[in-house]
Design brief:
about 250 residues, Rossmann fold, six-stranded mixed beta sheet, alpha/beta, about 10% strand, 9 helices, 6 strands
Length: about 250
């Protein structure tokens, strides 16, 4: 029997709408984002998937998306586990800045490398920065060395994989259809792990906002269909093109 894993990038946030690097900063969903979340819940319900476990990051845009999806999928009272390990990539000093401004200031190549490369992290913020995670009560219990000032995708993968192994995989092993609501880069890191992608291959992977991506996994939690299948492939193609174009408008 296959295990069902559904990955969902949160619905459109105000950072997405304004073409801003969001990172660990909190941005609410737009009305479009809330509609996307409701539509995602409807797609999950129509696909006959009844989540038995839900995991989200600690960022509001993912938590609100998960709440809307669970309500729309009619999975009332379903417990939702939240972890900082599913947070978006920390974009350091780029957080809160418009992508187009960063691209114009630093050039198209370094902009592309900061966004898509595996090993390169953007410029870091200082530990005294008012937006440093150590000032956020959500992360008060974390050791100082766990709190990033900026992250590469490789760093995101390092902090995500232990949560996959300890929490998400355990739910899947119990044969619970499992929903993970997170972010573009944390989900890219998870897909990289699941599909065995190389750093070069993951550089061209885009995760569409607000559209469920279904993975069917075997007993070893290996994908039966590499890359999974979007529950609405036509909308996925349009959304992926939108994500790829960020920073060019």
């Amino acid at each position: 029997m296959s295990r069902i894993l559904v990955l969902l990038r949160h619905g459109e946030s105000t950072a997405n709408a304004d073409d801003v690097f969001g990172g660990w900063l909190d941005f609410p969903l737009t009305n479009r984002g809330r509609d996307q979340a409701a539509a995602a819940g409807g797609l999950i319900r129509k696909a006959g998937i009844e989540p038995g476990a839900v995991h989200t990051s600690l960022l509001t845009r993912a938590m609100d998306t998960a709440d809307i999806v669970v309500a729309e999928a009619r999975s009332a009272n379903l417990p939702i586990r939240r972890s900082w390990r599913l947070n978006e990539r920390h974009y350091g000093a780029l957080q809160g800045r418009r992508r187009s401004d960063v691209r114009r200031e630093f050039g198209a190549q370094i902009y592309a490398d900061w966004r898509r490369s595996y090993h390169l992290a953007p410029p870091a913020i200082g530990s005294d920065d008012p937006d440093h995670p150590r000032r956020d009560p959500r992360y008060a219990a974390l050791p100082a060395h766990e709190l990033p000032c900026a992250e590469s995708l490789a760093a995101v993968r390092r902090r995500l994989v232990p949560y996959w192994q300890d929490a998400i995989a355990a739910d899947l092993a119990s044969e619970h259809p499992t929903l993970v609501v997170a972010h573009g880069n944390s989900l890219r890191a998870l897909c990289m792990h699941l599909d065995g992608l190389t750093p070069h291959e993951v550089s061209s992977l885009h995760i569409r906002t607000g559209l469920p991506l279904r993975y069917d996994l075997d007993d070893t939690l290996t994908p039966l269909v590499p890359g999974g299948v979007y529950l609405d492939p036509a909308r996925a193609a349009a959304g992926i093109a939108e994500v790829a174009a960020q920073g060019t408008r």
